[in-house]
Design brief:
With 180 residues, the protein is an alpha+beta fold. 46% of the residues lie in helices and 15% in strands.
C-alpha cells in the first residue's frame, strides 16, 4: 500500500467522522450494483468528499471477501497448485501459535511480529514463495526477491508439493525466527 493511501486511511476518521472499517460496514447494508452508486450514496447520504468516497468503495470490494473467497479467486484456473499452498500453510502453522496467516487479493502473508513469508500463484504452473531472510546469500534455488521487491529478500519457485522439502522448510523456519 503506498504512503498516500495509508495517510488517507489514517486521516479518514478525522475527515469523514468514521474509520474505513465503519464505512465498509455501512456499505454492506446496501445492495449496490455499481461502484458509482456506492460513491454517490456516501457523498449524498453522508457528506463524504468524492476522493474519500471513491477510496472507501474501492477498498470495500477487497475487504468484503472472506479468506476462502480470496484464495478461490487467487487460484481460479490454477486449482492444481492449491496442494502446494496447503502444504506451505500446514508447515508454517506448525512453527508456532504466533503465526498469522493473512490471505489478500493476490497473495497470502505469513506473519509473526513482522511478515516473514509471502506466497502467490505466480503462473498457471508455479507458486512463488517470498521469504524475508536478511543477509542470506542467494543460490540457484533461493533466488533474489524478483517480483516481490522489498517485501521479501528471496524467492523460491514451487511447481509441486514435493518442492516443500526439508531445505525449503529450513529457510521458512529461519525467516520465521528472524521475524520474532
Amino acid at each position: 500500500m503506498d504512503s498516500a493511501l495509508q495517510t488517507m486511511i489514517a486521516n479518514m476518521p478525522e475527515k469523514t467522522g468514521k474509520s474505513l472499517e465503519d464505512w465498509i460496514r455501512i456499505l454492506k447494508t446496501k445492495p449496490f450494483e455499481k461502484h458509482s452508486e456506492a460513491v454517490s450514496f456516501l457523498k449524498k447520504e453522508h457528506g463524504v468528499s468524492h476522493g474519500f468516497a471513491n477510496t472507501i468503495v474501492h477498498l470495500s470490494k477487497d475487504k468484503g471477501l472472506s479468506p476462502t473467497d480470496l484464495l478461490t479467486t487467487q487460484y481460479k484456473g490454477k486449482e492444481h497448485l492449491l496442494p502446494i499452498y496447503e502444504k506451505l500453510k500446514v508447515f508454517v502453522a506448525s512453527l508456532g501459535n504466533d503465526v498469522i496467516i493473512t490471505p489478500k487479493k493476490t497473495t497470502v502473508s505469513f506473519i509473526r511480529k513482522k511478515q516473514f513469508a509471502l506466497v502467490s500463484p505466480a503462473t498457471k504452473t508455479r507458486v512463488d514463495l517470498g521469504l524475508k531472510i536478511k543477509d542470506k546469500p542467494t543460490t540457484a534455488r533461493l533466488e533474489n526477491s524478483g517480483p516481490f521487491g522489498s517485501m521479501c529478500t528471496h524467492r523460491v519457485r514451487l511447481e509441486k508439493p514435493g518442492d516443500v522439502d526439508a531445505e525449503l522448510q529450513s529457510w521458512i523456519k529461519e525467516a520465521y525466527e528472524n521475524a520474532g
